[in-house]
Design a protein that fits this description.
Layout: H1 11-17, H2 28-32, H3 36-46, E1 49-52, E2 60-63, H4 66-74, E3 79-80, H5 110-117, H6 123-142, E4 150-151, H7 152-169, H8 177-187, H9 198-219, H10 228-234, H11 243-274, H12 276-284, H13 289-300, E5 305-310, E6 314-316, E7 319-321, E8 326-330, H14 331-334, H15 370-387, E9 392-393, E10 398-399, E11 408-410, E12 412-414
Parallel strand pairs: 2-8
Antiparallel strand pairs: 1-2, 3-5, 4-12, 5-8, 6-7, 9-12, 10-11
Length: 417
């Protein structure tokens, strides 16, 4: 297999010059260069159920059309999320480095563990959090420098999400940046410079397990509390988890609460600067924030894909997916499907069907914290609009090296005085 070219200057030309049999859209460098769009566009038009014969994670199928993704994501009898089948990411982890969580479980194991933390995300529980989020967002925004360049990712996106995570988990507030470190390590590409081996990743994540076991031991014999650790400790489905399952669920809650919201906070500001007419529209009518939030999540698509493994031979889209094959549902492509979203590459704050995005998945694994993520974005942008007519992006973002998460390390911005 030839290496698929990534032409940052002209990714469209590279996408349409590359033979389809050489396509490997799982390459992290494609996303780091923000060059993935034309490759997915061509797959949607010419080969929406595409087989990649060779990649760093082995052969896999790409599902790139919106309705096809919905169908795969909802067919839990034919396609597995279970960690014993490979889990939800392209790369199979060795048994020693596998951390099963409820997102990487099939029924009947999945639902009881998921329900253990579900009370945190009910409408009454979220309503109790809104004032706190608003106060924290306001404090963060009021402390930002004026008339000088700073990194929006660190001062706003990371700070707001780390504060929220610490609250949800009942984690010591002053040590909350540890949560970001563990989240980064859990999802890091081995070529990104943060870690170099799976053994190194595991050693750091075992520190995370030890820390949370200390919190667990404090709460398992106490009265049930409102935090996620207490909920896990007191739920019959999760109070007797082994260490690997415990760590897997902790990491799922950390990564789910950190990376998705944090990167949507950064992506939303980038989108408004890329489409200044939409920024003007928002300033003229700040009530559009409510509709803008799902459009941010669609446009950004913070989780690019989820994997399933075929449990049986399946005829799908005119192709034969065989038992054991890896199947990647590319949410990043489905959210740009021209048959569902008009002008899909544009950011449109009043897009009528923005809420039809598939960033949170479908079926039993639909994101548990989606309403919390939406609330954080809504509250933050409401507070921004009260304070700042404009926040200027003054340089190119630095994106993370990942095909799983569409994230940012740096977003240089300036707030005019």
């Amino acid at each position: 297999m030839n290496r698929m070219p990534i032409d940052i200057a002209d990714p469209r030309a590279a996408a349409y010059a590359t033979p389809l049999e050489d396509f490997d859209v799982s390459r992290a460098a494609l996303f780091q260069a923000d060059a993935q769009g034309p490759f997915f566009e061509r797959l949607r038009h010419e080969d929406p159920v595409h087989y990649c014969r060779q990649s760093n994670g082995g052969p896999y199928w790409s599902i790139t059309k919106y309705n096809d993704i919905r169908q795969i994501d909802s067919d839990h009898q034919s396609f597995s999320s279970d960690s014993t089948s490979g889990g939800v990411t392209l790369h199979d982890r060795p048994d020693d480095f596998r951390y099963p969580s409820f997102i990487s479980m099939d029924e009947p194991l999945h639902r009881p563990q998921r329900m253990g933390v579900a009370p945190m995300f009910t409408p009454p529980s979220l309503a109790e959090l809104e004032d706190m989020i608003r106060n924290r967002a306001g404090t963060i925004l009021d402390q930002l420098p004026r008339n000088e360049t700073f990194n929006w990712v660190q001062l706003v996106s990371v700070e707001l999400t780390s504060q929220m995570l610490a609250t949800l988990l009942g984690f010591p507030f002053e040590e909350r940046r540890q949560l970001i470190r563990w989240s980064n390590v859990a999802t890091a590409n081995l070529n990104a410079g943060l870690i170099s081996t799976e053994a190194e990743r595991d050693a750091i994540l075992q520190e995370c397990a030890d820390y949370f076991l200390g919190l667990w031991n404090e709460r398992v014999n106490a009265e049930p509390g409102p935090d996620l650790i207490s909920m896990l400790a007191h739920s019959p489905a999760t109070r007797n988890m082994d260490r690997r399952n415990f760590l897997g669920n902790i990491l799922l809650l950390i990564v789910g609460g950190n990376d998705t919201t944090r990167n949507s906070i950064s992506g939303g500001l980038l989108a408004l600067n890329r489409f200044p007419d939409q920024y003007r529209k928002l300033r003229d009518d700040p009530a559009l924030v409510d509709n803008m939030v799902p459009e941010i999540i669609r446009w950004q698509t913070p989780v690019s894909y989820m994997r399933r493994t075929a449990l049986r031979d399946v005829e799908f889209g005119g192709k034969k997916i065989r038992k054991g094959d890896k199947v990647l549902m590319w949410y990043a492509s489905g959210n740009r499907d021209e048959e569902v979203f008009a002008r899909p590459d544009d950011f449109i704050v009043d897009r009528r069907n923005a809420r039809n995005h598939i960033s949170f998945g479908f079926g039993i694994h639909r994101c548990l914290g989606l309403r919390l993520a939406e609330m954080q974005l809504r509250v933050l942008w409401q507070e921004i609009m009260k304070r700042f007519p404009v926040i200027e992006v003054v340089g190119e973002p630095k994106r993370i090296l990942s095909s799983l998460l569409r994230g940012y390390e740096e977003l240089p911005v300036r707030i005019p005085a």
